[in-house]
Structures are given as C-alpha cells and as structure tokens.
Amino acid sequence: MGALPSRFLQPITNRSARAAARGEGISLTGVSKTYRGRGTEVEALRDLNLDCPEGSFTALIGPSGCGKSTALRISLGLESHDGGTVRVAGKTPAEATRSGLTGVAFQDAALLPWRSVRKNIALPLEVLRRDPRAHEEQIAGLIRLVGLDGYENALPGELSGGMRQRVAIARSLITAPQVLFLDEPFGALDQIRRRSMNVELQRIWLETGSTALLVTHGIDEAVFLADRVVVMHANPGRVVAVIDVPFERPRTPDLFSMPEFHRLADHIAEVLHGT
Amino acid sequence: MDRRQFLGTGLAGLALTALPIRAAAASPLAMQAAWINDAEFSGYFLAIDKGYYPENGLELTYLPGGPDVIPESTIIAGRADLALTTPDTTTRAIAEQGAKFKIIGAQYQKSPHGIVSLKKNPIETPADLIGKTVAVPPVNTMTMEALLKVNGIARDQVNIVPYAYDPTPLVRGEIDASLDFTTNVPFTIGTLGEEAHSFLLYDHGVTIFNDTVVVTEDVLKEKRGDLVAWLRASRRGWEENLVDPAAYPPQWADTWFAGTGRTIENEIYFNTAQKGLILSDAGVFAMTDESIEHNIEALSAIGIRATRDMFDTTLLEEL
Amino acid sequence: MAHEASRAGMIRNVVVIVALWEIIGRLGLVAGGALPAPSGILLQLWADRADYPQHVLATVSGSGLGFLIGNVVAVLAGLIFVLMPATLRLLRGVNIAIFALPPIAIAPILNLTLSGMAPRVTLAALGVYFVTMSATVIGLSQYDTRSGDVVRAYGGGNWMVMRLVRLRGAVPDVLSGLRIAAPNAVLGAILAEFGGGGRWGLGSYLLGSLGRGDPFRLWGIGLVATVIAGLSYAVFAIISERVLGTTRSVTLNTAIPAPASALSPIGRLALACGAVLLPFVAWWAFVTFTGVPDMIAKTPLGVIDYLFVGDQSAIARQKLIAALAETLPVAFVGMVCGLGFAFLLAVLAQMSPAVIRAVMPIALFTQTMPLVALTPLLVLLVGRGYAVTMWITISVTFFPAFVLLVQGISRVPQSVLDLPRAYGATAWTEMRKVSIPAALPYLFAATRLTVPRALLGVMIAEWLATGTGLGNLLNQSRGYLDYGMIWTVASVSVLLSVAIYYAVLEVERATLKRLGMQMVE
C-alpha cells in the first residue's frame, strides 16, 4: 500500500471531490436485450436490475449464456439495449466512457502485439486523446504496481499469460477510473496463478478505491473479491439472487481454506444451480 | 562508357524517346514510324542527324513503331501528324470505315514483303504454297490473302499460322515459309546456318507500295507546307543514305540502333537490299499514275475499293 | 529445424534442376536445341550486357510507377470499402471487372487511347489493384475484435479502432498482397511494351530479338524478366516475414464476428444495379475523358452498335462466335486439366512432402516468368498446335492452384490428421476423409482465381502461336483497323471472365454449403 505516487492516487482518494458523485456507481434499471437473427430470437436479458454503490466491489456470476457479459458490455456502451436505463457514474455509458471515467479488462489481455508494455498501457489515453507523454509517471507507477518492473519495453509475445493479464489490469487503471469493469480477467489462467492474481487485484483495487464490477465463472474468485455476489440465470438472462459477502478486508489467501468461505461458496453454488 | 554514364543515357533515352529535335522557331511535326528502329527508317535517321528537318523549318518528333502499334491509330488520335503505313490497311479503312486519310507519298515503290523459304526446300512461286504451312504476321493477313487471290489459290489450300518475326521455326522446318520483309530476314537465316530463298509479292501480282506516307485530311489542310517540307527533307536523307548503304548504319550503333538486339551487319544488309525498292526515276516517295493504277488493281483483287483520289500527288509535285 | 531442413531441400532441388537443364541443353535433347543450356544463356547475357540496363530501367520504371499508383489506390479503396461496406457492394462490378481483365485484350485499347509511358503504367497498376485491394480488405476486416473492444470501451469510434488496431494489424496481409502483386506489375508493363512502340523496355527488346532466331538471348530476356519479378516478390516476402511476428496475436480469438448489418431489399437492389452499371459508366467516362475520336474509342453503346446494329454486324457476330468456339473449349479443357492435376498432386504431396519441395521451385519460377516471355519459348519446345495452348493454359492454372492448395492443406491441424491415423486408417482413407475435403474449398478458390489467367493464357497462345480464336481475332482486327472488333473482343473477354467467375462462385457456394464448409477468400 502507498506504493503509488500521490499524483496517481489523488483523483480517486479525494473523497470530498467524490462526495457529489455519491451513489453514482453503476446502475442498470429494467434493462432488456433481445438478439434477433434470421427467424430466431434470443432473449439475453429480461428486466435486469443491478445496482453497484460507489466504491463497492460487485461480482456477477452465472452459467454461460446468462447474459452477464452482455450486461457488462451494455454498461460500457459496446452493445445497445432494448429497454431500461443504464447509468455509469451518473452518466450514460457513452458519456462515461468518453470522459475516461471507466476502465476495463477483458478475459483476454487483448494487447496489441506490436506495442510494448508501456505503449499498451497508454492505449486508453490515446483513445481519449490525452497526451501519453504527460502520463509517463503514472505508467511507470502502474508497471510497478502490477509487478512488471523491467518489462516496460517488452512486446506481448515475450510475456507469459499471467504477465500479459497484469498488463491488461494496469491498462484498465491508467485513466484512474471511477468505475472498473472486469470481464473474467483471469478466465484463461490456471487455478494457482488465478488465486495469486486475485490477491493482487484486491490489493490494487483497495489502493484505487473505485467501483468495480467483475464478471466471472469462478465462485471462489467472486467470494474472495466481492462485497456482493449477484447470481444470474439464463433463458432469459435475469438476476436471481444478491448475496452479501461479509469478510473483512484486506482478505488474505488463508480465506480460501476457511470453513465460512466454503459455506458461503456452497450456498452460492446452490443458488447458481437452482437446487 | 562506364556504368554510371550508361544508366544516365538510359534515363535520358527513356525520357527522350519522344522528344522533339529542337530548332528555333520551327513548326512542330510528329511522325509515327511503322516498326522499331531498324534500317527501314535509315533515311529519316540521317535527315534528323544532319539537321535537314530544321533546315526546312520543321521541329520533328519521331515515334518508333512496333508490332502492336497501328500507325493509322496514332494519326486518328492526333498524336502524330503523319504515319508510315501499309497501303492495303489504309485504303480499306478509307473505303469501309470512312476514315479521312490521304496518301501523300510512298517510301517503297515495291513492297519488300515476300515469301521467304529455305533454299533446300524452296517456294519459288505462289503455286508452290499449296499444301504448305506459311507463317504470316496477323496484321498482314490481308496481304497474304491478296497474294493467294491474285494467283487463283483458295484460302484453305494453304495453312496460315501466326508469325512473330522469329525465323527459328522456318530454319527448324516447322513451317515451310513466312511472309516477311525480304530485305531483312534472309540475313538472319544466313546467320543461323541456312540459305534463304525468297520472292517479292510485288512480282506476283500484289503490285502495291509500302510504308505509304499517310495523313488525315485535316492535317493535310492545316500543315500542307510542313508536309512538303518533310517530304523534301526526308527525300534528301534517303538519297544520301542510299548512295552507299553500308556507310551510315555503323554510325548509329550507339544511337538509333542501340538496344534493338540486332546487329549492324543485319542493318547494312537491310539497307542494301531495300535500295532497289525505294529508288525511283521520279524521286524517292514518288507515286506515278501508273504505279497508283497498279495499286488500285491489286487492291481491288482482294475486294478493297481503292480509288485514285485516296492518293494525293500534289505535294510531291511541289518538291 | 524443420524449416531449415526444408529450405536446404529446396536449394538441393534447385541445384538438381539447374544441373539437369544444363545437361539437356548441352546435348540439345529438347526440341532440337530450342532449350539452351543455362551456361549458354548466361554467356549470351554477358555478351548483351550493354543492351540490358536501358531496357531493364524502362520496364522497372514503368512497372514500378504502376505498382506504386495501383497499390496506393488499392489500399485507399480497401480502407474506404471497410469503413463504408456499401461502397464495396456498389463497386463490386468494377472490382471483378478489373480482376477479370485479360491484360492482352486491354493492352491494345490502352495503346490506342493513351500515349507514352501511360499504357505500361496503367496496365501494371490494373494488374496490382485487385490483389492488394482484396488483401487490404481482408486484413482490415479480420482484425482482433478484442482489441477493438478495448478501444471502444474507452469511447473510441470506428476511426479510432481503424487507426489504433486495424491499420497496423492489416500490414502483414497487405504485404502478402504486395508480394503477389509485384510480378503482376512486371507482366503488365511488358505486355504494354509490346504495343507501346517505345524503344526501351524488356518487351521491346524481346520483340526486336524474336527476329534474330537466337534462343540464348530469348531465354536471357525471359530470365531477366523473371529475376525482376522474382526479386520484387522476394523483397515483400522478407519484409512480410519480419513484420508478421509482431502482428500476430499471441492467443487465438474465438469470438464469432458479428453479422454485417442487414440492408433493406430496396437498398440491396439499388446497390446491385449500381454494381452492374458502374463498370460501364467507368468505361464510358474513360473513353470520354481521354478524348480519343469515336472511330478508335468505342463506348459500350458503340460496341453494341457494332455487334448488333451496324451494316457489318452480322459478319462481326459470325467472326466473334467462330473465335469463341475455338477459344472456349481449349480454355475449359486446359483449366480442368491444370486444376485436376494440381489437386491430385497437392493431395499426394500431403503424404509425401518431398513432392512439394521438388515442385515448388519450378512453380514459383513459372509463376514469376512473364507469360509473354514464356510463350515463344514454349512454341519452340512443343510447336504451335493445340499442344502449346494446352501447355500454357495448364501451366497458368496448375501452379497458382497448386500453391494455394498446398497452403490450404497445410493449414489442417496435425491433430485432425492424427485422429484417423490413431484409428489405424490407411493412407487412402486418411486422404479421402481428411486431405481431400480439406483441400476442396481451396480448389474452388483456385478455380475462381485462375479463370482470367486461363483466358489470358489461351489468348496469348492464340495470338503468338496458333493463330486461332479470340487472341488471333484481336490481333487480326488491328491489321484491319477494325476498332469495333478490338473493343468487342476486350469487352467480351471481360464479360466472359466475370460470368465464369460467378458460375464457379455459385457452384462453390452450393457445394460447400452442402458439405458445411467455409469459403476461402
């Protein structure tokens, strides 16, 4: 903690400045979405309500095709929705993303293969038409934060899967986002690496204090990271339960082996499988 | 010549292929030749080198031809003022397509086109062609048809294949004869170790000119004086060149004949062989009433309705 | 390691082929010495060394300028097509027409309407446009959608995705397009030189030398042309190899691309009509723009008038039909033989990679050797009957098809091949179950791509060797100043190419759909 330069932390930790934005995390109200193909219709989301208070960590869990990724993509303005309202930091998704209030990491690191680690992290700045040179310090700080010192100029092809994923996390933080979207960011990693990444993600998130929405398949991951786990079912995609996770922060890897952890995880699994 | 110089001239050659020969306050005139640079155009090369065109008030642009160049097209498109053509093509275009051409002179009194064969398997007369394979440049198919028609041979009695001006098939016996310039190809056949035999189409009823000087009626009207000047300068070039056909080609090895892939001996042979076909008692380019009559007769044999008014001899009369 | 070994094998094969050639040439075994020994060709090349620089310079500058212009236009067009897909549909007719243009039919037209270096440059540019344009479209379309999502997630629009992700991602595809396009530019320039009447250029040199009866020089010119084309191919192949490593995504994108936005039926109809009409509009505009007199330059209406209305139209139609009756069967049989042979050999090669190593050098050599330079040599080798037409047609269809098929089959993952083997399948079963179906889409793609080449090959053979069919009609018409026929042959050959292209496309769609397979672009 406290490893970040103060300039980096400032916009996020300045609670007084954020007071006006209180209650403006992520809110999806009555959102519906239907995919229409040739003669087929798939109801991806029906009347979805999801409220992530500011500064909270929410995990969205559900089987494949339950629309959890769709909900995240709608919140980012990557997909349109048919009905309902979506607010991210009090704005429409398009406004929020365009003003650089959001950060995102996908299941695949999706790094540009021809850009170095540093330049990949700077990509969102370029999209937002900010000058990457003015952010050199933040970039260096983030590279340290995700533990990639010395790899600043490496190309993605020279990194391991875990390292690439850490670059993606760093990239998602470069805009100092108020709202962080994580779409199965560790889905492609093995169980061991995934757990260590979970610990690191918690550390990083605590430092930034942003509102986080994590889409995941992994119950362990959801319980370890989130304040609340939102369980979804498919056909049509809808929320079936919101389960609070009461563990103290910062959570340590020991938590994975504690009986309370397993009890909660088992409960979520039951809700998930509808038994 | 070192390499750099060479590349330099190469670039220059590239850029200057169609650049006018400069002279002060001269009228520009462009001529389209019928073929790539060889001895067939010696008279013009000489007249250009010696400055006869500027002397006659002309700034001449010389455009070389090639197998795919249709000289008549160049003057229709207005890229040249006069062109050297084969009279059968030109008169047919006038008669059938209403092209507004006038023939104002003829370089060859007798067309050099002939049937070339090997001495060991000679084609002596048109009748010998029956049952044989003859290679004919597709653009000269009409000329070949004229020969057959005039001599009473049916088109299907002779096997006509395309000719790409390569004597190898003839030497190798793959074809029996070719329609080509008798002034040129026998030399090459000689270098390939065979002896050639040839006869002129002209001597067997195809009594036509060749390299006829053709202009459009518009150009004739607008540039009459320049055309007369061109005929005068060119005639002088030709006369001087033909005094000793071996004299000039060696001088053009690095200029006009550079890069054609042909030897200077070949050009001397060509220049010598064409002497009798060009010179006329009435002067180079002459078109006598008698010879025009012969042309019209020969052309009518293949169904081209050539008439006297396609030939305009008034410019020659001014010389 | 395997790469090294195959390269060594390739070099060994080239050495063996050259040595065999030398022996055959020395002993005059083929066609009474019409195939000269490489050493003799090199000696002649040395003797003619003073002639070459200017000719090479002219050809290289003509094809280079055309290559540059054609590719700039192609990349810009590809960019526009991807950003505005409607334009791609609208210009489909123009694109296919440019792809299907047999250069030999267009060369006389360009020489009639343009002057100086313009015909060479234009023909070279036309030769590269389609290849580079489609490579650009494919490269820009098949970008990593995940990277695109990252950009969009920060509010980036289409242009931002294009700038940051797609343009750079398309570089390898564009480069491989340029690699294939480069020899096309050389061929185009040489073909135009045949009719351009310029003094310099390898095409002009070849023509001047044809009358010399010197096979050593003819082969020398052919080889120089091949080397120019081959070098330009190699340059882009090397650059492309360098760039590929930093472009390919490390992980595989499994996301399914979103379907293209649907158009209203009226919009689609309008675009289709536009696509059909535009090539004719372009033709019209070209004729008007160049300002060449009506007698020489025919508009689409002029051709219709010539073929169906004018006094001579009956004769013209008769000539055209007679020529088509000669050309089409040969083209068809030659293509079927070439493609069938390529298919067979490619499938066999799958079982024995040595075959690939033996055939590939020859394939690449003949691919880069300009057809016009090859034809006179083939005439010397096999005479001027139907054999030469068949040979040319087979060679122009066989090699591209073979290269494409081998590439296609080699993309079949090893695991797929291992599966039948693991169940003890015989080589034949394996071929029937895996290799042949895997090669089928590539066979169709090869067929589509080689149609214009086959027509070009037949027409060149007819023009230079057999004196029959469309090629001869085109050539003879020039002798008769029959401009109407020149334009008719050009437009009919383009229309034919397009028609056959679409016919193959339909069969391909139906067959692959039935087999549940993907089309190859």
Automatic annotation (TrEMBL), chain A:
Pfam family, one: ABC_tran
GO molecular function, one term: ATP binding
Record keyword Oxidoreductase present: no
Positions of the ABC transporter domain: 26-259
Keywords assigned by UniProt, alphabetized: ATP-binding, Nucleotide-binding, Transport
InterPro entries per record: AAA+_ATPase, ABC_transporter-like_ATP-bd, ABC_transporter-like_CS, ABC_transporter_ATP-bind, P-loop_NTPase
Listed PANTHER family: ALIPHATIC SULFONATES IMPORT ATP-BINDING PROTEIN SSUB, TAURINE IMPORT ATP-BINDING PROTEIN-RELATED
PROSITE patterns with a match to the protein in the record: ABC_TRANSPORTER_1 (PS00211), ABC_TRANSPORTER_2 (PS50893)
Protein name: NitT/TauT family transport system ATP-binding protein
UniProt source species: Amaricoccus macauensis
Domain of life: Bacteria
Chain ranges passing through the membrane: none
Protein family: Belongs to the ABC transporter superfamily.
UniProtKB/TrEMBL annotation, chain B:
Short name of one Pfam family: NMT1
Signal peptide from the UniProt entry: 1-23
GO BP, one annotated term: thiamine biosynthetic process
UniProt keyword annotations, A-Z: Iron, Metal-binding, Pyridoxal phosphate, Signal, Thiamine biosynthesis, Transferase
SUPFAM superfamilies: Periplasmic binding protein-like II
Catalytic activity, as annotated: N(6)-(pyridoxal phosphate)-L-lysyl-[4-amino-5-hydroxymethyl-2-methylpyrimidine phosphate synthase] + L-histidyl-[4-amino-5-hydroxymethyl-2-methylpyrimidine phosphate synthase] + 2 Fe(3+) + 4 H2O = L-lysyl-[4-amino-5-hydroxymethyl-2-methylpyrimidine phosphate synthase] + (2S)-2-amino-5-hydroxy-4-oxopentanoyl-[4-amino-5-hydroxymethyl-2-methylpyrimidine phosphate synthase] + 4-amino-2-methyl-5-(phosphooxymethyl)pyrimidine + 3-oxopropanoate + 2 Fe(2+) + 2 H(+)
Protein's pathway: Cofactor biosynthesis; thiamine diphosphate biosynthesis
Any one GO molecular function term: metal ion binding
Coiled coil (UniProt feature): none
Domain SsuA/THI5-like: 40-246
Subunit structure of this chain's protein: Homodimer.
Family indicated by similarity: Belongs to the NMT1/THI5 family.
Role summary: Responsible for the formation of the pyrimidine heterocycle in the thiamine biosynthesis pathway. Catalyzes the formation of hydroxymethylpyrimidine phosphate (HMP-P) from histidine and pyridoxal phosphate (PLP). The protein uses PLP and the active site histidine to form HMP-P, generating an inactive enzyme. The enzyme can only undergo a single turnover, which suggests it is a suicide enzyme.
Protein name: Thiamine pyrimidine synthase
Taxonomic classification: Bacteria, Pseudomonadati, Pseudomonadota, Alphaproteobacteria, Rhodobacterales
From TrEMBL, chain C:
Entry protein name: ABC-type nitrate/sulfonate/bicarbonate transport system permease component
InterPro entries noted in UniProt: MetI-like (IPR000515), MetI-like_sf (IPR035906)
Sequence similarity: Belongs to the binding-protein-dependent transport system permease family.
UniProt-annotated location(s): Cell membrane
Gene Ontology BP term (one): transmembrane transport
Source species, domain of life: Bacteria
Organism: Amaricoccus macauensis
Record-linked CDD domains: TM_PBP2
ABC transmembrane type-1 domain: residues covered: 56-240, 324-504
PROSITE patterns: ABC_TM1
Keyword list, A-Z: Cell membrane, Membrane, Transmembrane, Transmembrane helix, Transport
Membrane spanning residue stretches: 12-35, 55-83, 90-110, 122-140, 216-239, 269-286, 328-349, 361-382, 388-406, 485-505
SUPFAM superfamilies: MetI-like
Membrane topology designation: Multi-pass membrane protein
Pfam families xrefs: BPD_transp_1 (PF00528)
A GO CC term attached to the entry: plasma membrane
